[in-house]
């Protein structure tokens, strides 16, 4: 039987299995879901075994386990390493979901007329890494696996992949491969296939601003003692100037500027600004002066407040001058910014701009390096050929604004090309309420991954 007919025959089961995986609330950030994260790891282990992988192992770490499995059919053949993550973002706020986040439902949308599965993790990343296990199953079942394959599926991507770093460093030999396939990004659209060749890095900070030693009556003290929330807002506002340029000294020092030709090529990607605004219900976009939206996201660093709190936020009104104010602030970074350096620059600057009326604490949570991958490697060529075959159109290279911190480590330590072979769309609501993944994206993804293996082996002269 051909891979294509096996896929066609098993489509319904492939979807059902994904639904079963999506039912497990594997939220790595929330200790309440610890047992479920482990349950998802076991689900991945079982599905790798059923698909035909050998040496399937739950590799324990100080955090959540990494699931490993492989099929080495002939050491002389090229080897593909598949990376993905079975953990998901918290689903909060639950009340903004149209259906419960861990009770997957199939619904049609304007963008997904064939239907999409709505659940936390549908596109990020369960629906995407599971395509690889199903493509592998199909190739195994039809005796069509043309390359060796290794799987490494982790459970801590959404909290910074700290333990994966150590695992990769300790298992370089075991993870040796000719290419690394990662489906955890977007493509422009079903009619506009694309392959991601750039990801931003990140430095995630938390700040605490303390004013008086206790909450005060805002009448007795207001106007005479610094309000830490007012101060924090002013400090945050000063982090960007009127051109949305970040004011932290040294912040741009290592930023790689692209050539005019490179920028022009980037901006040739299909992009409709009014459609972009329409989908977000915004009247105008916003960002660093002198750059297009594509550039602001793809090649420029930025700084955003992810959350800010303090004082009274309950029902009704309470007149209080709070003692403390807090904020979580992330910076998205581009080559060659180093997140450890940026975290220090931020901390020094944030302390320097604090008025004497408050004291400031700054803490770095996690970070990750930006990455740019080749658009001419053998792996890229195979991915290009595979997409051209299944989508009927040659994919274009794009740069995305999100981060997968482990990609840069893969490049540095494993020396093989990572291919960011994502099949989701930016409207799939990753990290948002009502996350979903198109059924068609899922099925064409499986088909395209199988095609990748065939092209990759052919390009290796097999
Ligand atoms: N899959 C995303 C990254 C992504 C999304 C890349 C869309 C390109 C397009 C990944 O799971 C993720 O969310 N990463 C985090 C970073 C992590 C350190 C928490 C991110 O980008 O916020
Ligand atoms: Mn992801
Ligand atoms: Mn994510």
How would you describe what is shown here?
The two termini are 21 Å apart. The model has no long low-confidence stretch (mean pLDDT 97). The protein is of the alpha+beta class and 462 residues long. The protein has 12 helices and 18 strands. β4 (105-107) and β5 (116-118) form a beta hairpin. α3 crosses α12 (439-459), α4 runs parallel beside α11 (406-414) and α10 (378-391) packs across α12 (439-459). Helices cover 34% and strands 21% of the residues. It folds into 2 domains: 3-199 and 370-461, Zn peptidases (Aminopeptidase); 202-255 and 301-366, Alpha-Beta Plaits. Strands 1-2-6-3-7-17 form a 6-stranded mixed sheet, with helices on both faces. It has a 4-stranded antiparallel sheet with strand order 11-13-9-14, with helices on one face. It has helices at residues 3-22, 34-51, 122-141, 162-170, 228-237, 260-266, 273-280, 293-298, 339-352, 378-391, 406-414, 439-459; strands at 54-59, 66-71, 79-85, 105-107, 116-118, 148-154, 179-182, 194-199, 201-210, 216-217, 302-310, 320-321, 324-333, 359-368, 371-372, 396-399, 417-420, 436-438. The radius of gyration is 23 Å and the shape is globular. The structure holds ligand BES and manganese (II) ion (2 copies).
In the predicted model, the low-confidence regions spanning at least 5 consecutive residues are none
Radius of gyration: 23 Å
CATH class of the largest domain: Alpha Beta
The helical percent reads: 25-40%
């Amino acid at each position: 039987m051909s891979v294509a007919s096996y896929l066609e025959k098993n489509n319904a089961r492939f979807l059902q299995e994904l639904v079963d995986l999506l039912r497990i609330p594997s939220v790595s950030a929330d200790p309440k879901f610890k047992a479920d994260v482990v349950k998802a790891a076991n689900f991945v282990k079982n599905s790798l075994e059923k698909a035909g992988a050998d040496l399937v192992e739950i590799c324990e770490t100080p955090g959540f386990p990494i699931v490993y499995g492989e099929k080495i059919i002939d050491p002389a053949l090229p080897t593909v390493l598949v990376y993905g993550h079975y953990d998901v973002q918290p689903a909060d706020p639950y009340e903004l979901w149209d259906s419960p986040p861990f009770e997957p439902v199939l619904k049609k949308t304007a963008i997904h007329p064939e239907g999409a599965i709505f659940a936390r993790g549908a596109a990020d990343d369960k629906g995407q890494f599971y395509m690889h296990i199903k493509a592998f199953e199909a190739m195994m079942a039809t005796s069509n696996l043309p390359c060796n394959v290794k799987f490494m599926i982790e459970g801590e991507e959404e909290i910074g992949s700290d333990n994966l770093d150590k695992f990769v460093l300790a298992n370089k030999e075991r993870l040796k491969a000719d290419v690394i396939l990662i489906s955890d990004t977007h493509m422009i659209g079903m009619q506009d296939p694309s392959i991601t060749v750039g990801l931003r890095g990140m430095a995630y900070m938390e700040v605490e601003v303390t004013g008086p030693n206790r909450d005060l009556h805002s009448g007795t003290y207001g106007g005479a003692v610094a309000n830490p929330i007012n101060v924090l807002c002013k400090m945050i506002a000063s982090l960007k100037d009127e051109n949305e340029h970040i004011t932290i000294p040294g912040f741009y020092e290592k930023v790689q500027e692209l050539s005019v030709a490179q920028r022009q090529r980037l901006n040739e990607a299909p992009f409709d600004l009014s459609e972009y605004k329409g989908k977000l219900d915004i009247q105008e976009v916003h960002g660093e002066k002198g750059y297009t939206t594509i550039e602001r996201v793809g090649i420029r660093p930025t700084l955003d407040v992810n959350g800010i709190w303090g004082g009274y936020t309950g029902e009704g009104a309470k007149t209080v001058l709070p003692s403390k104010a807090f904020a979580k602030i992330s910076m998205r970074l581009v080559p060659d910014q180093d997140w450890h350096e940026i975290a220090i620059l931020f901390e020094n600057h944030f302390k320097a701009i604090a008025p004497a009326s408050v004291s400031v604490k700054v803490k770095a949570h996690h970070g990750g390096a930006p990455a740019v991958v080749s658009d001419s490697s053998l792996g890229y060529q195979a991915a290009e050929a595979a997409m051209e075959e299944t989508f009927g159109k040659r994919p274009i290279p794009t740069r995305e604004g999100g981060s997968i911190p482990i990609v840069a480590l893969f490049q540095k330590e494993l020396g093989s090309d990572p291919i960011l072979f994502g099949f989701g769309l930016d409207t799939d609501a990753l990290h948002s309420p009502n996350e979903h993944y198109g059924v068609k994206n899922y099925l064409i993804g499986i088909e395209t991954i199988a095609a990748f293996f065939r092209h990759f082996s052919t390009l290796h002269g097999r």
